[in-house]
């Protein structure tokens, strides 16, 4: 699924997303022939990459998957009780090729703990045994934003920029406490209920793209701006990620795909000065980041990988999906 953009904000417009989702619900689904799909996928030249992604997103052992007594048919999932509209339509989009009676555990929202039973979810911790949290491309209209940035890096402003909600988000509060007012770091809290001193108007994505460095700071879970930053001609600046989504943030390499700073941001000014003095490094990071995003922009590939992830998740010891 590709999205239409709100030209002013640079974000995905939601009305086309909902129109497509509602229209999709009106058409009968075609049941997936998993055996055929796996066979055709294995014949692709990019099969090693596909398998690697599937096994990363779903780390469960197909021979020992037990969804537990709490699993229920995916067709019985309803909006409400934490399952907002975008999660509802996204889970139904990816589950459509499967039997409506197929039972799943589904955890919508910003999930920062590993599920007790194998569950489909948007986010999980990077570290530790996170196999019970199986990642899908969820809330995609908000999270999967790509940009066509035509401003070269060297013509951008030599400052770091951050705009976002701060209250109740410890990492962002730490950043603001240390650097609000720093001339090299333009910080603004867009939450009208936050600290009045830190408050600033929202900035559109095109406005933020006029800066060389854009801070990606985790909030409730992942930094939702990271994806569009990495598709731009600006450099993502952040500590090593603690959470990950379908974007596989845990596979990003520091100082290859983004400029790494300390978890407490203590070295942020020095790191920015170093990058400003080494534009060749910035160029390499931008190219590597752009290349990383390409795999998520091929929707035919995304649908294939989603189907394989779910097929593996639905495996049973009697009928395992083994690649």
Describe this structure in words.
- The protein is an alpha/beta fold.
- It folds into 2 domains: 146 residues, no CATH class; 142 residues, 3-Layer(aba) Sandwich (Rossmann fold), CATH 3.40.50.2000.
- It is built from 11 helices and 12 strands.
- Helix 1 crosses helix 4, helix 2 packs across helix 11 and helix 3 packs across helix 11.
- It is globular and about 60 Å long.
- The model has no long low-confidence stretch (mean pLDDT 93).
* H/E element order: HHHEHEEEEEHEHEHEHEEEHHH
- Main beta sheet strand tally, sense and closure: 5 strands, parallel
Q: Output mean pLDDT.
A: 93
- What is the terminal-to-terminal distance? 26 Å
Percent helix, as a range, is: 25-40%
Radius of gyration: 21 Å
Biggest sheet: strand arrangement: 8-7-9-10-12
Point out poorly predicted stretches: none
Write down how many β-strands occur, each being a DSSP E stretch of 2 or more residues. 12
- Taken from the alpha-carbon principal axes, the silhouette is globular
Task: Write down the domain tally.
Answer: 2
Oligomer, anyone? single chain
How many distinct helices? 11
Content-based structural category: alpha/beta
Beta-strand share of residues: 5-15%
